[in-house]
Amino acid sequence: MGKPKRERTLKDNEAQAVARMMRVSPQKLNLVAELIRGKKVSTALADLEFSRKRIAVQVKKTLESAVANAENNHDLDVDSLIVAEAHVGKALVMKRFRPRARGRVGRIMKPFSNLTVVVREVEETA
């Protein structure tokens, strides 16, 4: 039997990729996601390639995965794709403690983030 198939939440001209549990704070990841929002995929990939942020490598991987999903699963044209959305969410936070002076403790937060990249096919206007 099994469950009935879930309806597709995206439009027919969209594809997405999700990267979960990325070891970076959402605030830092959002700075990199801001670089690619609304740009053509080729431009966004070039920006991520030359970004000096450590997490840009994983963001690039996620964007390439979204492009591959668009091409292979949804038959979209790769050359006319733009980054429609790139949103960041919070995941868990590991809490660690470091001894400090006079018997106190310093709390260290190690946050994780989720990244969702949605690419959309647009018609070229000449």
From TrEMBL:
UniProt-listed InterPro entries: Ribosomal_uL22, Ribosomal_uL22_bac/chlpt-type, Ribosomal_uL22_bac/org-type, Ribosomal_uL22_CS, Ribosomal_uL22_sf
Keyword terms: Ribonucleoprotein, Ribosomal protein, RNA-binding, rRNA-binding
Superkingdom: Bacteria
Gene3D superfamilies documented for this protein: Ribosomal protein L22/L17
A GO MF term: rRNA binding
Biological process annotations from GO: translation
GO cellular component terms listed in the entry, alphabetical order: cytosolic large ribosomal subunit
Pfam families: Ribosomal_L22 (PF00237)
CDD domains xref list: Ribosomal_L22
PROSITE patterns reported in the protein's UniProt record: RIBOSOMAL_L22 (PS00464)
Quaternary structure note: Part of the 50S ribosomal subunit.
Family recorded in the similarity comment: Belongs to the universal ribosomal protein uL22 family.
Function: This protein binds specifically to 23S rRNA; its binding is stimulated by other ribosomal proteins, e.g., L4, L17, and L20. It is important during the early stages of 50S assembly. It makes multiple contacts with different domains of the 23S rRNA in the assembled 50S subunit and ribosome.
Protein name: Large ribosomal subunit protein uL22
Source species of the chain: Propylenella binzhouense
UniProt gene name: rplV
